[in-house]
Amino acid sequence: MRFFFIIGVLAIHTIGIVKKQFDPTSLTYQIFGGLHASFHFTRTSFMFVSGLVLFFSLSHRPVSLLKFWRKRFWLIGIPYLAWNLVYLMLHGQSPLTLTFYQQLGPHLLHGDLGYLYYVLVTMQLYLIIPPLFKWLQHNQRYHRVILYSSFWCQILITLLIKFVIPHLDTSHWPYLLSHYGVFVGTYQFYFIAGAITCLNYQELTEWLDSHGPKLIHLLWIAVPAIWLYYYYDRFILHLGDIASKSVHQPLFVLYACLFILIILYLGRRWAAHRLEPHWRWFSKWVALGAQLSFGIYLAQPIAITGFKWFLANTHLSTLALILITPIALLVIYGLSFGIAYLCYQTPYLAYCIGRPKKILKTRSSSCLNSAQPCKNNSYNQQPKHE
């Protein structure tokens, strides 16, 4: 799942950069706006994956609260600090000046450099995951009620964000509430859905195996619906481009759920064939890409900065910009992958992508790649795909 979602994340950012080269009143800009919106399932999907992986890591053996926090914050704290330093230098700040360190503190608190908001959200998730896991374990018979309640709570959150909060004075609100995009509570449904998926994996996958093809057919309705939703926001509600493609909208909750289920289904289909001779090369690539996905995510601003420089120093026609978009995506992915792989192969730099060698072989890191369920739930009778 992470392999495909990271490609979607890079696609969003690549399309967004190219879109800015067009006249905002042009038809091309509006078409790219709809295309941009249709990829906005990746952020919330990553939140789902984070919940799934973290709950899997807790499910197969008891872990003390302090031990969990020490391990997780160590693994994510080093990348968070390191890439804040890198991004500040990308913005032209010299680490030899006092200004550099004066700016570093606020950026560390706010997670507003590059795309580090995701790391800040993950840190908040680490604080609540252990007690949340125990609570869900002890209330397995209420999982459906919990999931449905969380879903409708998420719908309410998106309605408040879209229709109420923009009209309020949030200047005196706590930072995480006024900047809800970096607040863990904003994504509560996706984390809870990941946890419940982990604890009820067998039941869910049996349903997916029988309904997966129908879900794929729904894409013919879902993607055009998102395009129309974007244009409705732009031209009927007169919202800006950013608000119109925001993931914090009711329809995007359903849209993300559909994509999560489809990717889970396709992941299971791939897992059933991944050891076949003609699939092994692809399986190795997917496995490595999944392990490096966090590093690719962190390294992407370097490649994106290079792409922005290229566009600023060339004068491409509209047709050329359209044609270069998929090529740019491949180049950005390749460069980000290369940087992440270099860090991965270098002992100390591996900490900067959260992948020190001694951690790589933990069972939690292979949860999604092998499409295996959690071991301590009552529905787990599925044979391994190894």
UniProtKB/TrEMBL annotation:
Q: Does the keyword Secreted apply?
A: no
Gene Ontology molecular function terms on file = O-acetyltransferase activity
Transmembrane spans: 40-60, 72-90, 115-133, 145-165, 177-201, 213-232, 252-270, 282-299, 319-344
Q: Supply the alphabetized keyword list.
A: Acyltransferase, Cell membrane, Membrane, Transferase, Transmembrane, Transmembrane helix
Q: Which Pfam families match?
A: Acyl_transf_3
Its placement in the membrane is given as: Multi-pass membrane protein
For this record, the Gene Ontology CC terms, alphabetical, are: plasma membrane
User: Where would I find the Acyltransferase domain in this sequence?
Assistant: 1-341
Q: Name one GO biological process term.
A: enterobacterial common antigen biosynthetic process
Task: Tell me which domain of life the UniProt entry assigns to the organism this sequence originates from.
Answer: Bacteria
Q: Where in the cell is it found?
A: Cell membrane
Similarity comment text for this entry: Belongs to the acyltransferase 3 family.
The entry's protein name is Acyltransferase
Organism the protein comes from: Latilactobacillus fuchuensis DSM 14340 = JCM 11249
